[in-house]
Amino acid sequence: MKEFAYIRWIQKQLKTSPEVNIPSGDDCAGIKIGRNKTALITTDVIVEGIDFRLGAGGATAFQVGYKALAVSISDIAAMGGVPGLSGRDSLSSRETKRSGADKLYAVATVTLRKELSGKFAKELFRGMKTIAHKFNIPLIGGDVSSTKGPICISTTVIGIAGTKGTLKRSGAKENDAIMVTGKLGGSILGKHLNFIPRLAEARTLNTYYRINSMIDLSDGLLADLNHILKPSGEGAILWENNIPISNDAYKLSRKDKKSPLSHALTDGEDFELLFTLPMREAYKITRDTPLKIPVSFIGIICKGKGINLLTGQGQIKKLIPKGYEHFA
Amino acid sequence: MKEFAYIRWIQKQLKTSPEVNIPSGDDCAGIKIGRNKTALITTDVIVEGIDFRLGAGGATAFQVGYKALAVSISDIAAMGGVPGLSGRDSLSSRETKRSGADKLYAVATVTLRKELSGKFAKELFRGMKTIAHKFNIPLIGGDVSSTKGPICISTTVIGIAGTKGTLKRSGAKENDAIMVTGKLGGSILGKHLNFIPRLAEARTLNTYYRINSMIDLSDGLLADLNHILKPSGEGAILWENNIPISNDAYKLSRKDKKSPLSHALTDGEDFELLFTLPMREAYKITRDTPLKIPVSFIGIICKGKGINLLTGQGQIKKLIPKGYEHFA
After folding, report:
1. Domain co-membership, B17 together with B104
2. Do A191 and A68 lie in a common domain?
3. pLDDT given for residue B97 in this prediction
4. Which of B2, B112, B145 should we substitute to test contact with A (largest number of A Cβ atoms within 10 Å)?
5. Most buried one in A192, A203, B177, B204, CB count within 10 A?
């Protein structure tokens, strides 16, 4: 049974519950608590050999711990972000109120092989603690066990957001602008181990602009855009010339036969924000430049199914959102 | 680095946060939310080869899924229990208000080997769903990945309890009665895979009696009693004749050279409730018999360190709470 088929089968088995206002299938689950608050919960597992490898050229113990928690923080960001960030990115209490959101908490379970050193175990925890501290997220509990196989680290992050504050995948509307933060592709060269979850950026966007839908890029631009289009019942046109391509996508492209564009469209684990919003709001963002990282206007939501690419030569090409091998 | 040493080291690294009113070290973490509510969060991981094994005489896929979620539900029970149980055990809404507690939610991450069948994966989920349904706990999210090694399943259960509703390990007081539910020992013969978390029982106890401290029995009676004594700064005397010994402890005793009592005192994973309370409250429980399972009055909390056993012959024996090999 394939992983995605299993997940779809599980999703069908899950009963909906009246107070679960964001069911399985989005970046986080949401539970209505009190009158107008939503608790956000996300859980992720990273596995040695799949999400990281150790040894020469691979991840350090610090990076493994860092990544394990970062992927869950990125899921929370994609739902609308929360305050509680430390340092100069912090919102004032007025802004916190405006965004209607509250603090995050994390728990984690770690399985390690007995032959790994105490130093390794401590470095792994230090990586987790470093990103928790950076985003002012108390680590409040956990469980540790041993394994004879690959290391598995599971993290759960919990937050409380105002009902206003949750951004779903399903909210994209016809004529919405499609925007993305940062530059895309080639994260396997390093970014997938040390990315900064876009929690501050998502919070700024959600506080000051009217965002209709948002997701974090974990499976790749095309696959994740498809995760927005399907529940929204829409299609999309992307503009080739506006896709932001990272230096690592160019670097990787010189090693393999894929184009830098292909890497930007299909590589996973960029953990940038992909979001859609009314055109006039996109113009405001372009004018205001409210973030310290680039935001690119890469396409529009339109009627119909699927994703089309408007090439630099003015041609329309159909894109299949399943990763590079299906992309002509 | 040993597992417990690693956990102790991690606990030292964790900063306390003013809103975290139950820090790491109890059965759940607790976060103050709103004026007088506490969110309870617990996370556990079970690993193939340690917490279960597959194949002849081992666990079925259903039992693996069941156990993975049951251990976390048991942790929530040990903090004071919550309502939301289905069927005739349900509290009326007045009782729900009285216990000051709210509903539970669960998320899980599962890593499976690729060669395991779709049927196995589905049965595993069915086990998890069965216990979730039994306790009316919506499964609201999760993550699935593959591994080349042992199956790891991590579960996180979240609930909201009134401040009154949380029972900590640290609350035991001198002259408290020590009570335990059910019968103990030999869970390896089967109970560790199909135990019923004592959520309803913990809730009844916490609603109608003044309980000072509570824990669920996962490491064994002596080890878990020690988890109450240490933070409470107290000692204990147990009465040999009152320790409830399970049939499986007798059965196991006939196979190995340990006494049935030793099994009851040191075997892990009974997942019964161990709690302490003022003597007059213990008498009330003995008189009322409010639970459908046995409750035994096994000893008292007293000044001093450590655990002593009053034998059937009237002798006092010092017990060392580290598992059977240290127990004379």
Report:
1. yes
2. no
3. 42
4. B145
5. A203
- B146 interfaces chain A, CB cutoff of 8 Å: yes
Taking the Cβ of residue A19 and every Cβ of chain B, the question of whether any pair is shorter than 8 Å is answered with: yes
CB of B19 less than 8 A from some CB of A: yes
B246 touches chain A (CB under 8 A): no
Q: Which parts of chain A register pLDDT below 70?
A: 1, 34-35, 81-102, 162-165, 322-328
Q: How many CB atoms lie within 10 A of CB B177?
A: 21
By C-alpha distance, the chain A residue nearest B153 is A154
Tell me whether residues B39 and A158 touch, CB distance under 8 A: yes
Mean pLDDT of chain B: 87
Give per-residue pLDDT as tens, A102-116. Answer: 588 999 999 999 889
**Three-state DSSP class for A42?**
strand
Q: In this structure, what CATH number is given to the domain that contains residue B24?
A: 3.30.1330.10
Same domain, B101 and B206: no
Using the Cβ of A54 and the Cβ atoms of chain B, whether some distance falls under 8 Å is answered with no
Residue at which a domain ends, from B166, B189, B205: B166
Same domain, B162 and B177: no
Are the beta carbons of B43 and A158 separated by less than 8 Å?
A: no
- Report the C-alpha gap between B240 and B225 in whole angstroms: 15
Band (B299; pLDDT cuts 50, 70, 90) = very high
Whether pTM > 0.95 for this model: the answer is: no
Domains identified in chain B, total number: 2
- Domain of residue A186, CATH code: 3.90.650.10
B55-93 pLDDT, tens digit per residue, is 888 999 999 999 999 999 999 999 876 644 333 333 444
Answer whether B24's CB lies under 8 Å from B11's CB: yes
Cβ-Cβ contacts under 8 Å, A14 against chain B: 138-140
Cβ(A46)–Cβ(A109) below 8 Å: no
Residue A170 near residue A45 (C-beta atoms within 8 A): no
B15 shares its domain with B138: yes
**Count of CB pairs separated by less than 8 Å, A with B:** 193
- How high is the pLDDT of residue B205? 92
Residues of A whose CB is below 8 A from B129: 13
What per-residue confidence (pLDDT) applies to A92?
Answer: 43
Based on the domain organization, do A187 and A153 belong to the same domain?
A: no
Nearest CB to B156 within list A107, A129, A160? A107
Residues A139 and A247 reside in one and the same domain: no
Place of tokens 């899924």: B65
The closest CB to that of B44, out of A3, A24, A109, belongs to A109
Are the CB atoms for B47 and A147 separated by under 8 Å?
yes
CB proximity B156 to A under 8 Å = yes
Distance CA B52, CA B46 (A): 8
Same domain, B34 and B87: yes
Could B148 and A145 be called an inter-chain contact, meaning their C-beta atoms sit closer than 8 Å? no
Structural domain range at position A192: 167-328
- Average pLDDT on B4-15 reads 82
- Among residues B149, B166, B183, the one where a domain terminates is B166
Show which of residues 207-226 on chain B sit within 8 Å of chain A, judged by CB atoms: none
Residue B321 is predicted with a pLDDT of: 77
